[in-house]
Design brief:
Elements lengths: L5 H9 L8 E6 L19 H11 L2 E6 L13 H5 L11 H12 L10 H5 L28 H13 L34 E12 L6 E9 L4 E2 L4 E3 L4 H6 L15 E6 L6 E10 L5 H10 L7 H20 L3 E10 L6 H12 L36 E10 L7 H13 L2 H5 L2 E12 L7 E2 L5 E2 L10 E3 L17 E10 L11 E8 L11 E2 L7 E2 L1 E3 L15 E4 L9 E9 L10 E10 L1 E2 L2 E2 L2 E5 L35 E9 L6 H14 L6 E3 L2 E3 L1 H14 L5 H6 L1 H13 L2 E3 L2 E3 L2 H17 L12 H10 L28 H4 L2 H14 L8 H11 L4 H11 L2 H9 L1 H19 L6 H4 L2 H23 L2 H24 L2 H18 L3 H16 L4 H4 L29 H8 L4 H6 L1 H15 L5 H21 L6 H10 L1 H9 L32 H10 L25 H17 L2 H9 L3 H17 L10 H4 L1 H7 L2 H8 L4 H10 L7 H6 L11 H5 L4 H33 L8 H14 L4 H25 L1 H15 ...
Parallel strand pairs: 7-14, 12-14, 33-34
Antiparallel strand pairs: 1-2, 3-7, 3-11, 4-5, 4-6, 4-8, 8-9, 9-10, 10-11, 12-13, 15-20, 15-26, 16-19, 16-21, 17-18, 21-22, 23-24, 25-26, 27-28, 29-30, 31-32, 31-34, 32-37, 34-35, 35-36, 36-37
């Protein structure tokens, strides 16, 4: 250590010195619920077992703490207050996105008026400016913008501004990482404490009946009907008035305060809907059956007055006399049940009942309850808070009581009653009910009740003496076992007399009561006052009487006698039952009681407590002496003999139950404890154990047997006495015993028994485990209870045992806690600390030596672990955690006791012990490896063992020599590598292992973090041989470069960090299944480490942080190597394999995907003409698995933290030496970082900020957890449920885009329950995170700029930096960041302006767009910054003439594309900005002499005119057709400016895509592509390129309009024209590919083929085979779709829309054809247009013309607007039909449409057949559909009229065609066929065809002009009848048996129709068949045939 600098020494000390140990042994007093601990009565000599139990319950906890954790002074950040207010220290960051949201709400309500389009139409864009900029007020300007400052000064100022007010800790802003990986959090087990279920506070408010004549007494208890079990003891209370209490004064000697309680706390561990609260009411005994005594209550009412009042008074007097005479006897009276169903919120119960089934009080320990520390219940047994019960305090009122039935008083009867009551209310009918009133109040009991008594009547804290009525806690009798070890002394006995059968007994026994006493001898005076009293009486009684059933010889009893058992029981203790007959009538001189007999029950049998059910005989006479030594059934024969009832048969049934934490009530445990105590104290042999006698010789054998049998005991008693059992076993394992002169060794047996117990506890389904698989009971035992066994001196050598202070049980003070040996050691400690006393204590020293020579527990335990074999060994290593924690705790105590902490670590423990530890670690490691090779199920086991091994070594680092431990770690790593072939598993295991070790609080010191590269000493731990790296005089530069790499020297010096980095690098490098989980683990480990450092108060000083950051520098290198694997937040879609390193991401925040993907298509091509930044192919990347978004974000945070905290000069020196390729990698990384930390806004805070809330509550909690070893497993579980890790849904995170409009999927569940304040707080923190992250990125860019200024900048470095800046401008940023970012940009422009405008064209274009966007910001600060930057861009680009022209062009285009978005764009703000820029130009004195100001003004004027278009577009926002028209016109007006036209076409495409008009969007892109093709054609002549727009004709005939470009003699190179990135071959391909995608989405697959015909030659020319592959696969998909979908495809539906009325402005009298989505019905479009124009003009002014007749303008109301809408169909001439064969061809490239209008000559639309005419109208549009817009103006209109007979011909053709189609349909469709047939031949409608025939064919027309038509119609009918015949036949083949009749009917109808038509069809017009010229008949046939053919084609047209 000697060559550390003094600063380093200080740092090391501050972080906790090396030499000091970090483990401390602390005694903490047990938390006691009661004011005084529960203890046995004073002054009794206790048995050893009872003494041990009590000592276990009252002694302090012994806890091993870590020193650097608990000290609150050092951890300012951990104080709850400062943590809670953390967010108050942050500045609120302003984001425009959020301020915009507020303002938008205000603007939406403005009224709507229809804009007029006329203004735009005539003028070109540049003259449209009717708005003078100068009339505006400019924004304030930045002061020093135009002053000349040296760039160094400027940059220095920028940096100072940037560094001010930055939060110190980055991780405080970062939400906690998913805790799934946080293996280093070792949950602190819950402190063992008394089990309490769900506590219910029941207050009795009122109890009264219709008449009040006597005192009444209530007892309340809980019953579970389903389990048929009473589940609580009784609570006795009464609400009697003082008057009625006076009646009983003679019988109540005193009234204890505790007996006046009227409220009780019941406890329920297993809530269920079957629990009832039963109230039983008793009264004082009086003469008569229960029914008689209840009669007055049924018939009288006190309120009645008159006679009944007198009766009541009489009854009162009667009652008083009974009370005086029989006041101590009770009789049953009434009862009432109350269901607690509603209390235990049943809905939540049903959800969880299934869980509760398995609970059994499961694992009362390890799960952390809600805040209530007192509730310790399994995580699944519901607590009222947990079950989410919304239960408020409830008042329950009962108005009816059931009368008790004298012969049905037992519990059995009660359960029957309750079951009936639950099923129905039938009980009320069978049992008499007594009207009365009972009011109760139920609430869930708070943890702290002001004045409460336990079941033993001990006051609970806090206890106020002032309150008169306490609350009573009522003991629960759970329905199933509750597994919680005893922690308090409790010793209660409950006696339940059940039934007495005196049926055959003499007549006097009728009103029977039993006096019950607890006796300690046979003398009547030896009744003990240990029976708990009832209400309003003494606290304890000596005797109690059961209630009496009048005149019943075999009564049932329901009494519960609660007895406080004495701690020391002897053979004399017994229960005495005395039976009496009570005479109710007063007889002269007769006593009230008549003795009937006795019975008794000894409390102990074979020295063991007797419990259970008994049937006792009753002795009829006085009992003989010494009766109590025998049981009543087995009394030896007496002289004189005892007289028994029923000849000594059992006639009295009784049940006895104990609730005791002293009596085990289990044979195996009883035997074990008895034998153990026989070793510890003087006993006489032979020893009696249960029913067996044991001699001294057999003791050793018997004890071994009992140890082995321990595990056979039932689980519940074993758990209840677990602490004591384990203490005893550990005692046996180290205590050497001398039995009968022989030394006995029990250690192996004891150890194996512990192992068996551990095994059964872990395997029990009923006990809970924490998330690391540790059994909660054992975990809390080791943590709190375990202490080194106290070695008793050998009991058989009197005198040697040191006198203990209290013979009853060890004192409760600190002295008891330390062991004997430590007492003896005190002398030594004194002498060590006080040199004057050195020699005085030699005798004590010798004594110490003699003790030290005995076994040490840790050595014995390690030895047993090593030598164990077989199953024992397997179990030991399976549950290794338990033995490891025992080892650690015993080692810590050993050091504490022996005070070895000052000695050298190497000599603390013996070599043998170290060998054992090494063996154990090796065995465990190989065990892990062996398990991992096995199937999946074992893997989990291996993981748990692995983590417990890690914690063991973690603890050893604090106890043993660190070199020794490091060696163990190295062995572990090597051994695992050697044995495992599966890489992910191997890395995963080692990672979790290291993660635990790295969470060590001395971690930084263990890693020698204070060694910087140039002062590295030899590492102090002997295990690592390190060379002194400063010896080689290597070059400084290499050294710095080396600091960022993982070098062998680094690994040697920083051992643990080196290992961790190695694992991370391996994980990132690996491939294979499951690797992504491993990568997440690796990153998460490093992330949590850095987070801990960042938030550790010990690292708060900047100089410490710099050192810590230096330790992590190699991570930077690792991250850079992993660059290709990072999740790409910038990509549109993570699946698209796109390159990151080039391609600027235009339109990053546009909602639709058009721009980005086009941009990507360009960027990703290898033949991009000019790409910014090297293409990825130039970097030697390895292809690896991609990381998920979360993992990437965590890794990025680590990167940013290092960059933020490392020494900036060091980073600059490093950058200066990097090759440009590496620099570009860094820039790529920064680029991704920007998108990664984009602010997601309050409304949609996604994962970056959702959990920030918890974070804001406990940012430092994870530091605390890592140090304080975690928190309850329950908390762990909860946290895990709250944030489902991404990896469980791997697909999801990959495919979601990080766009504002699609927030992350995780939010939904997080958002629900947060208040506004919490959301605001979250947004505040996430806003700060986004700002801080971006500022760190900006710092890093500044570092790159500074460091590489010396370098040559040619290597596109500038482009890289710009790209990152532009990306950050495209994200949602806070004003703080934007201010700094623009400052950096201005510095960059000032410094590298020339280079920028020469080289980086694309970046410039992007930059212009982003800056312009910010010029339209609503935030003044941002606007002024953006204006200044834009002005500088213009000013610096003015240097080279062409450059300024180019900048002008770029700015104009940027604006045009911004305007196209229209949605989030504010032109007023932008106008202000333009005015500000003008002001700069006017104030810029230096430039006044040049043309610059004029050019600027011209540019601004152009921009202003574009803005004018925007305003228009805003007005049309609601009318998509008008909006597209306007955009179309704007685009048209840019015919001379290809760049701008292209921009507008893209804007239109974007709008179309939003409206799901994919075909139109595709057409826009096709037009754009044609524009580019025209330009490329002028530029270079390549055969593979399309020849201008002509080549696009097959896609659409409309494209020719793009060829205008060539007429305008534009030279492509002039003045920055066509300089955009689209005017390249890759741009062309990009546009076409995008168009093809959209065509495909729109279902025009045939067009996809045409588009790719243009793309393929270009790809072939570039030999881009990868793209060709994907292109052909897309083509294949398209063709497949054509085949599979065929006729099912839907194309558009068309409508003609005419506008009439002056209100429409220039739309008046215009007609358009609208294209609507397929299956749009006329009412839909009608509703839409009517609604829209109704909004514009007012609904009353808009009218839709319903018919399609020509509109007569003169008949219209001039004040109204009329819309006429007609459905139209595509129309083709016959010649066209030859070419349009497919369905697609008939729906594509459409320019002519037809609609028909029926009319009659009289003017009605419809008339008789013979007068029905039809007008066919054919419309022609200006362009063919589909076009770049969805409505096209009509240019031509033709009409032709059909006469009635022609209309008939058309109709018949249609019908015939329908039949033909139905007949030939494949597969045949019977339903369709029958429908058409029915319409043709059905009886009902044969009027149809028949009528037509009768009207037109009945007679030959008089007019010869109609002959042809007549004949045509006749032939149509012929065909029609033939088709009908075919259809009938076809139908016959298709139908089933059920339709036979129907078929007959059809056939009949067909024949009838055929007959009716025959005469007309056979009549020919002779004139037509006379040959005018003699013709060969043969030809005539052909003529006929041809006419038929013609007819066919016409028929087919009709389709």
């Amino acid at each position: 250590m000697n060559h550390l600098s003094s600063l380093d020494m200080e740092l090391a000390q501050e972080l906790g010195d090396f030499t000091e140990d970090s483990l401390d042994v602390v005694f903490t007093p047990k938390e006691c619920r009661t004011l005084q601990p529960s203890l046995p009565e004073e002054g009794v000599e206790l048995e050893p077992h009872v003494r041990d139990c009590v000592q276990t319950y009252v002694r302090e906890w012994l806890i091993v703490n870590r020193k650097n954790q608990g000290n609150p002074e050092t951890c300012g950040f951990r104080k709850a207050g400062s943590r809670r207010d953390f967010h108050r220290t942050l500045q609120k960051q302003t984001f425009e996105s959020e301020t915009a949201e507020c303002t938008e709400l205000g603007t939406q309500t403005a009224p709507h008026s229809l804009p007029v389009l006329g203004a735009v139409s005539g003028k070109g864009p540049l003259t449209a400016c009717d708005f003078d900029l100068r009339s505006l007020q400019p924004d304030p300007r930045l002061e020093n913008l135009l002053q000349h400052v040296s760039s160094e000064d400027y940059e220095r100022r920028n940096e100072e501004a940037r560094r001010a007010n930055r939060p110190a800790e980055l991780f405080a802003l970062y939400p906690p990482v998913d805790e799934e990986d946080a293996v280093e959090i070792r949950p602190v087990p819950e402190c063992p404490k008394e089990h309490l279920g769900n506590r219910i506070l029941v207050k009795v408010l009122t109890l009264k009946f219709e008449i009040e004549i006597e005192p009444l007494f209530a007892s309340i208890a809980l019953y579970d009907v389903k389990e048929r079990k009473k589940i609580s003891e009784n609570f006795h209370c009464d609400l009697n008035s003082d008057q009625f209490r006076g009646f009983l004064r003679a019988h109540t000697p005193s009234v204890a305060a505790s007996s006046q309680a009227r409220s009780a706390v019941f406890s329920v561990t297993f809530p269920s809907p079957d629990i009832y609260l039963v109230i039983k009411i008793e009264k004082v005994l009086q003469q008569g059956e229960i029914g008689e005594c209840a009669e007055p209550y049924l018939v009288l009412k006190e309120s009645d007055g008159g006679k009944s009042k007198d009766k009541v008074e009489k009854l009162k007097l009667q009652a008083e006399s009974f009370c005086q005479r029989l006041g101590k006897y009770r009789m049953p009276f009434a009862w009432a049940p109350i269901s607690l169903n509603s209390f235990f919120n049943v809905s939540s119960l049903e959800r969880e009942l299934s869980d509760v089934e398995a609970v059994g009080g499961r694992g009362s320990l390890g799960e952390r309850r809600t805040l209530s520390q007192s509730r310790r219940l399994s995580e699944r047994a519901l607590s009222l808070e947990d079950s989410g019960s919304t239960f408020k305090t409830t008042s329950m009122t009962i108005n009816n009581f059931f009368k008790q039935e004298g012969d049905r008083l037992s519990d059995e009867d009660l359960f029957k009653f309750l079951a009936d009551y639950k099923r129905s209310s039938s009980l009320q009918r069978r049992v008499k009910s007594i009207p009365g009133l009972l009011k109760l109040e139920l609430s869930s009991a708070p943890d702290m009740l002001g004045c409460c008594l336990t079941p033993e009547m001990l006051p609970v804290r806090p206890f106020s003496e002032t309150r008169t009525r306490p609350h009573k806690e009522i003991l629960e009798f759970p329905i199933r076992e509750v597994y919680a070890p005893h922690t308090v002394y409790r010793n209660l006995l409950y006696v339940y007399p059940q039934r007495l059968n005196f049926a055959n007994k003499l007549a006097s026994a009728r009103n029977i009561t039993i006096k019950i006493q607890f006796m300690c001898g046979e003398d009547p005076s030896s009744a003990m006052p240990v029976i708990f009293g009832k209400s309003s009486g003494p606290e304890f009684l000596q005797e109690v009487y059961t209630a009496i059933t009048y005149h019943n010889k075999s009564p049932d009893f329901y009494e519960e006698v609660k007895i406080k058992l004495p701690a020391k029981l002897t053979a004399n203790h017994h229960l005495l039952f005395t039976f009496y007959h009570i005479s109710c009538q007063q007889k002269q001189g007769a006593s009230v009681e008549t003795l009937l007999g006795y019975s008794w029950l000894p409390i102990l049998l074979n020295e063991r407590l007797q419990t259970g059910s008994y049937c006792l005989p009753v002795a009829l006479e006085k009992l003989p002496a010494n009766y109590s030594l025998h049981s009543a059934e087995k009394v030896p024969l007496q002289n004189p003999p005892i007289k028994w009832a029923e000849g000594h048969k059992g006639v009295f049934n009784i049940e006895v139950q104990a609730v005791s934490s002293v009596h085990t009530q289990d044979n195996h445990l009883e035997r074990f404890f008895t034998l153990c105590h026989s070793l510890e104290s003087q006993v006489t042999f032979p020893l009696r154990v249960l029913d067996q006698k044991i001699s001294e010789g057999a003791l050793e054998h018997e004890l071994k047997l009992s140890i082995i049998c321990l595990n056979s005991s039932r689980l519940e008693p074993l758990v209840l006495f677990l602490h004591l059992v384990l203490d005893k076993l550990f005692q046996l394992s180290v205590q050497s015993m001398v039995i009968a002169g022989q030394t006995a060794n029990f250690s192996q047996f004891a150890f194996e028994s512990v192992v068996a117990i551990a095994n059964s506890l872990h395997n029990s389904k009923d006990l809970s485990k924490d998330h690391q698989g540790r059994n909660c009971l054992l975990a809390s035992y080791v943590h709190y209870v375990f202490r080194l066994p106290e070695l008793h001196r050998d009991p058989h050598k009197p005198g040697s045992s040191p006198a203990l202070p209290d013979p009853r049980y060890h004192t409760y003070g600190r002295t008891a806690a330390t062991s004997v040996s430590s007492k003896l050691l005190q002398s030594r400690v004194m002498s060590n600390s006080n040199p004057d006393l050195a020699g005085a204590h030699s005798t004590a020293d010798e004594e110490v030596k003699s003790i030290m020579s005995s076994k040490h527990f840790h050595e014995e335990l390690a030895l047993q672990m090593v030598v164990s074999t077989g199953m024992v060994r397997e179990t030991v290593f399976k549950y290794a955690w338990f033995f490891f924690e025992l080892l650690v705790k015993s080692m810590a105590q050993y050091m504490h006791n022996v005070d070895k902490r000052d000695s050298l670590r190497r000599t603390r423990f013996s070599d043998r012990f170290k060998d054992d530890i090494t063996t154990i670690v090796n065995v465990v490691t190989s065990e892990i490896a062996a398990l991992l090779v096995k199937p999946q199920k074992e893997n989990e086991q291996a993981e748990k063992i692995n983590i417990s091994l890690a914690f063991f070594l973690y603890d050893l680092l604090s106890l043993m020599d660190r070199g020794f431990v490091f060696n163990l770690i190295r062995h572990y790593c090597n051994q695992l590598s050697a044995k495992l072939s599966n890489l992910p598993t191997l890395i995963s295991m080692r990672l979790e292992f290291l993660r635990v070790l790295c969470s060590h609080e001395q971690y930084l010191n263990l890693n020698l973090f204070f060694m910087s590269a140039d002062t590295a000493p030899v590492s102090p731990c002997p295990s690592i041989s390190s060379q002194n790296s400063s010896s080689g005089s290597s070059l400084q530069d290499q050294k710095i470069a080396g600091m960022f790499d993982l070098t062998p020297e680094y690994r040697q010096q920083h051992f643990l960090t080196g290992l961790l980095f190695t694992e991370l690098a391996a994980a990132l490098d690996a491939e294979g299944e499951g690797i992504s989980r491993v990568q997440r683990k690796a990153v998460s480990a490093i992330h949590s480490l850095l987070s801990n450092h960042d938030l550790d108060p010990r690292c708060a000083k900047p100089e410490v942080k710099v050192k810590v950051a230096a330790l992590y520098l190699p991570l930077v290198g690792i991250i850079l190597d992993a660059l290709p694997q990072l999740y790409d937040f910038t990509a549109v879609d993570a699946r698209g394999g796109k390159s990151r390193s080039s391609g600027s991401y235009e339109e990053q925040d546009g909602e639709s995907a058009i721009h980005q993907s086009v941009a990507l298509a360009i960027a990703g091509n290898h033949f991009s003409l000019k790409s910014s930044g090297p293409l990825p192919s130039s970097l030697p990347y390895k292809q690896c698995s991609l990381l998920s978004a979360d993992t990437t974000r965590n890794l990025m945070t680590c990167f940013l933290w290092i960059v933020k905290n490392a020494e900036q000069s060091l980073i600059q020196r490093w950058i200066a030496d990097l090759p440009s390729m590496q620099l570009n990698r860094i820039l790529d990384l920064l680029f991704i970082c920007v998108s990664c930390f984009e602010y997601k806004g309050k409304q949609s805070s996604d994962k970056v900020s959702t959990q920030v809330l918890q974070k804001s509550r406990d940012v430092k909690a994870r530091l605390e957890e890592a140090l304080l070893r975690g928190e309850g497993a329950r908390g762990e579980m909860m946290r895990r449920c709250r944030t489902p890790g991404n990896d469980r849904f791997p697909g999801l995170s990959e495919n979601l885009r990080w766009k504002k409009d699609q927030t992350h999927w995780r939010q939904a569940n997080d958002k629900l329950d947060k208040t506004k304040a919490e959301l605001d707080q979250e947004a505040l923190i996430s806003g700060n995170l986004a700002t801080e992250a971006n500022l760190i990125i900006l710092d890093m860019q500044e570092n790159i700029i500074q460091a590489s200024s010396a370098l040559d900048w040619k290597d596109s470095l500038l482009g890289g930096v710009l790209r990152v800046l532009v990306n950050s401008l495209s994200c949602d940023q806070s004003t703080t960041y934007l201010t700094h970012c623009f400052a950096t940009l201005r510095a960059l422009i000032a410094r590298y302006g020339d280079l920028l405008f020469e080289e980086e064209l694309e970046q410039c274009a992007d930059l212009c767009q982003r800056v312009l966007q910010h010029c339209s910001s609503s935030m003044d600060v941002t606007r002024s910054q953006a204006c200044a930057t834009l002005y500088l861009v213009m000013r610096f680009s003015f240097g080279a003439v062409s450059n300024f022209a180019r900048v002008k062009m770029q700015v104009t285009m940027s604006l045009a594309s911004l305007v196209g978005k229209a949605a989030d764009f504010n032109e007023e703000h932008l106008r202000r900005s333009l005015r500000t820029i003008l002001a700069y130009a006017e104030e810029d004195t230096a430039m006044q002499t040049t043309l610059f100001p004029i050019q600027v003004e011209e540019l601004l004027r152009n921009l202003n005119s574009i803005l004018y278009d925007t305003v228009k577009m805003k007005e049309f926002q609601e009318d998509p057709e008008m909006l597209m028209d306007l955009m179309y016109r704007i685009a048209k007006s840019y015919q001379t400016s290809p760049d701008l036209r292209l921009t507008w076409l893209q804007n239109m495409a974007e709008k179309h895509t939003k409206r799901k008009c994919y075909t139109e969007a595709a057409m826009c892109l096709v037009h754009a592509a044609a524009l580019v093709a025209e330009y490329l054609g002028m530029l270079e002549d390549h055969s593979y390129l399309p020849v201008g727009s002509v080549s696009f004709q097959n896609i659409s005939s409309n494209v020719l309009e793009e060829s205008a470009v060539s007429d305008d003699t534009l030279s492509p190179d002039a003045d920055g024209v066509c300089s955009g990135r689209y005017f390249t071959e890759s741009g062309l391909v990009g546009l076409l590919e995008q168009a093809a995608e959209l065509f495909s989405t729109g279902g025009l697959y045939e067009t996809v083929n045409e588009v790719y015909k243009l793309v393929i030659p270009i790809l072939e020319a570039h030999r881009d085979f990868r793209k060709l592959t994907s292109t052909h696969s897309k083509l294949q998909k398209a063709f497949d779709s054509i085949i599979s979908k065929g006729h099912k495809r839907m194309f558009g539906t068309y409508f003609r829309v005419g506008f009439y009325g002056s209100k429409f402005g220039d739309l008046d009298e215009q007609e358009f054809v609208y294209k609507e989505p397929a299956i749009t019905k006329l009412p839909e479009i009608s509703h839409r247009l009517e609604g829209f124009y109704g909004q514009c003009f007012g609904a009353e002014f808009v009218e839709v013309i319903k018919d399609s007749t020509p509109v007569d303008k003169s008949k219209l109301d001039p004040n109204k607007a009329y819309i006429q809408i007609t459905f139209v169909e595509p129309y083709f001439d016959e010649y066209e039909m030859k070419d349009r064969v497919t369905y697609f061809e008939k729906n594509f490239n459409l320019r002519r449409f037809m609609y028909t209008t029926p009319f009659t000559l009289e003017g009605r639309p419809r008339g008789e057949l013979q007068e029905q005419y039809q007008r066919n109208t054919v419309l022609t549009t200006t362009h063919a559909f589909p076009y770049i817009k969805t409505r096209i103006a009509v240019v031509q209109k033709e009409e032709f009229v059909l006469t009635p007979i022609e209309v008939a011909i058309e109709d018949m053709k249609k019908k015939t065609l329908q039949l033909a189609v139905a007949i030939n349909q494949e597969p045949p469709d019977a339903k369709m066929l029958q429908m058409v047939l029915q319409g043709s031949v059905g009886a009902t409608v044969n009027q149809g065809p028949l009528e037509v025939a009768q009207v037109f064919l009945a007679e030959i027309p008089a007019d010869p002009k109609l002959y042809r038509h007549h004949n045509k119609l006749r032939l149509c009918f012929k065909e029609f009848i033939t088709r009908c015949g075919e259809a009938v036949e076809k139908n016959k083949r298709l139908i089933g048996a059920d339709q036979r009749e129907y078929q007959q009917e059809l056939k009949k109808n067909h024949s009838r129709l055929k007959e009716s038509l025959r005469p007309m069809l056979e009549r020919k017009i002779p004139e037509l068949y006379k040959p005018l010229v003699r013709v060969d008949s043969h030809k005539r046939d052909s003529f006929q045939r041809s006419s038929f053919r013609k007819c066919d084609t016409q028929l087919s047209q009709g389709s």
